[in-house]
Write a structure and sequence with these properties.
Elements lengths: L2 E6 L4 H11 L7 E8 L2 E8 L2 H8 L6 E7 L14 E2 L5 E6 L5 H7 L10 H11 L4 H11 L4 E7 L4 E6 L4 E4 L5 E4 L11 E4 L4 E6 L2 E5 L5 E2 L4 E2 L14 H7 L1 H14 L2 H4 L8 E6 L1 H16 L4 E5 H4 L10 E7 L5 H12 L3 E6 L5 H6 L2 E3 L12 H18 L6 H9 L8 H7 L4 E6 L2 H17 L3 E5 L15 E7 L5 H13 L3 E6 L9 E4 L8 H19 L18
Parallel strand pairs: 16-17, 16-18, 18-19, 19-20, 21-22, 21-23, 23-24, 24-25
Antiparallel strand pairs: 1-4, 1-10, 2-3, 2-4, 5-6, 6-7, 7-8, 8-12, 9-10, 9-11, 11-15, 12-13, 13-14
Bound molecules: 6-O-phosphono-alpha-D-glucopyranose (G6P).
């Protein structure tokens, strides 16, 4: 995680870098800092907490060469000494780093002459670089051969050198339209600042001068790189509420509509040029995207295509047997989750058919897979994914219809679904009631079980309540032992064929003193239940309908508990380290 932004320009690079860091805050917000050059001396300013604190501290400052960083702590506590940038002991080089140096302990023990000022792996890296021979580029290249792990790094020296390089973690560089150059972790930072950009590949380096960017490979040889055109980024949000999360939930209907229109108007499925018959589909993802992949697999199975779902961090080191006849779909909002990217690389190297399902134009996953199913959810800022999740589920459903040959036939029905899409909120009284329970469980069967998983993830990540989801048929195999009068079981029930089975499970919970909250579109009356009534819709698309009030449950609970739902502790939106 962590975001880096570095700039050399005649303009005030401090402002450009701080603005860039604000756009990168989704990658971590434990601390932030900049280094800049003043009279051949490197000066550094750091703050703990969000970028706004740094912004206050650098107010009025002017510098041409600046490197900046927003941190998600990996090594070392959230303290100012561990915030980036890190200076080498000689104070001649400053570094910002995104990634993890896995062998930093071994390297640190070899650097016995250094007095380390932080607990980070990154400070080891900057000292390693400083102790190498040659100019800044050569030092960096030599040191990079000694480190294991991942890095996107920007370096400045007290002589005014500006060098960047990367392995595994993303890094982009560009000439700015108003003059100068910038390096950053996310192309989005360059939006409205540049018209073209360069993507650094692993073990590529660049030396940046005000009007020139030179690229080098790991042998220090100059290489030529082609630039790519910036794609237009959507507005952050068309709806403005107090929190990004609320705006983003409320945007769901609009973004589903845009997604559907684009899929009909742009022949996206046809343009993929996929083989006529797909014999198997494997979906790989992390977090919320993994949950949409679970639903996708259900949809593909209904289209008579065997489908399997994998958590990316498990798949990458597992013993999966790859199938040349299968299609591998990598689902990711950001398109830069480290584990998902690693899996795509493995599959691509083994010549599997790969497809990226992402919400971010130009993202790394798209570049690896080449074939892309876009979601049109627009930029998502809140760490907890909401509208992007709904769009992922929708696109996977549309794709299953396409593979079944029914996509165009069902145009009217799909348009009707979007036009009639209703938001179900959850009233405050119900939220208060939920918050009185010490133990919260989410249950459901089949598609509703996936909704239970996603609802539970939403609640825990922004309220820190210890809750979990379980397939209701599994309750008897252990979890029922936890049920008592302090337990609330939130049961999702939207599928007719398993309705009665679920109700029997709920009886078993009540018999043990547990309280039930039923989230359903069916008229199931039981005066002991708390109820959250859902609108009716197409059964297969009910997961998109039923998740909305559960997203609101998480949001409202978080606010009532006094937290910031957009920036939950310990988390970041893009998980760019494994
Ligand atoms: C983080 C985010 C989640 C997201 C997951 C996968 O954990 O907080 O909201 O679902 O990463 O991210 P991706 O960008 O690959 O969908």
């Amino acid at each position: 995680m962590c975001g880096i932004c570095a700039c050399l320009s005649k303009q005030n690079s401090v402002q450009l870098v701080v603005d860039g860091l604000k756009k990168l805050e989704y990658r971590g917000y434990d601390s932030a800092g900049i280094s800049y050059l003043e009279n051949n001396e490197i000066r550094t300013i750091k703050t703990v907490g969000e970028i706004c604190h740094l912004e206050e501290k650098v107010n009025g400052l002017f510098a041409n060469l600046v490197i900046g960083h927003t941190r998600w702590a990996t090594h070392g506590a959230v303290e100012e000494k561990n915030a980036h940038p890190h200076l080498s002991m000689s104070n001649k080089i400053s570094l910002v780093h995104n990634g993890i140096i896995e062998n930093y302990k071994a390297l640190k023990s070899e650097l016995s002459t250094i007095n380390f000022r932080s607990d980070t792996d990154s400070e080891v890296f900057v000292n390693l670089i400083d102790l190498e021979e040659g100019d800044l580029l050569q030092k960096f290249i030599h040191a990079s051969k000694k480190v294991q792990g991942s890095f996107a790094v920007a370096l400045i020296s007290d002589k005014g050198d500006f060098v960047v390089g990367k392995r595994e973690s993303p890094l982009y560089v560009a000439h700015l339209s108003d003059g100068g150059v910038m390096a950053t972790s996310d192309v989005y930072v360059l939006n409205n600042l540049a018209t073209n950009f360069f993507t650094l590949k692993d073990d590529e380096f660049a030396v940046l001068k005000e009007n020139e960017i030179s690229f080098y490979n790991k042998n220090g040889e100059k290489i030529h790189k082609k630039c790519e055109k910036m794609q237009k980024f959507d507005k952050i949000s068309a709806i403005f509420e107090k929190t990004h999360m609320k705006s983003e939930i409320l945007e769901t209907k609009n973004v589903l509509k845009t997604t559907l229109e684009n899929y009909f108007n742009q022949n996206i499925f046809e343009n993929l040029n996929l083989p006529k018959k797909i014999k198997e589909i494997n979906l790989i993802a992390c977090g919320t995207a993994y949950h949409s992949a679970l639903l996708g697999a259900e949809y593909f199975k209904r289209a008579s295509i065997p489908a399997h779902v994998y958590v990316a961090s498990e798949f990458r080191y597992g013993n999966e047997i790859l199938n040349k006849n299968a299609l591998y779909i990598f689902v990711s909002q950001s398109g830069e989750t480290a584990d998902t990217i690693a899996c795509a690389k493995i599959c691509k190297e083994k010549k599997m058919k790969c497809l990226a399902l992402t919400n971010t134009p130009n993202c790394f996953l798209n570049q690896i897979c080449k074939k892309v199913l876009p979601t049109f959810a627009g930029r998502e800022i809140a760490v907890a994914s909401t509208k992007a999740y709904s769009c992922q589920v929708f696109v996977l459903f549309l794709f299953s219809l396409y593979l079944k040959g029914e996509f165009y036939q069902l145009k009217n029905l799909l348009e009707e679904f979007v036009a009639d899409f209703k938001f179900t909120d959850i009233n405050d009284k119900l939220v208060d009631e939920v918050l009185t329970y010490k133990k919260i469980f989410f249950v459901g069967r089949e598609e509703d079980y996936v909704t239970a998983l996603e609802a539970s993830l939403k609640l825990k990540e922004i309220t820190y309540i210890n809750c979990f989801a379980i397939a209701s048929g599994e309750l008897k195999h252990g979890t029922l032992a936890l049920i008592d009068k302090n337990s609330l079981v939130i049961a999702i029930c939207t599928q007719e064929k398993i309705k009665d089975k679920l109700i029997s499970n709920l009886e078993e919970i009540e018999a043990r003193g547990g309280k039930i909250m039923l989230v359903s579109n069916f008229d199931i009356r039981d005066e002991n239940y708390l109820t959250l009534k859902l609108p009716n819709s197409f059964p297969l698309l009910m997961p998109i309908v039923s998740i909305i009030p559960l997203q609101f449950l998480a949001l409202k609970s978080s606010e009532k508990l006094g937290y910031n739902p957009d920036k939950p502790r310990n988390l970041a939106k893009s998980v760019t380290v494994e």
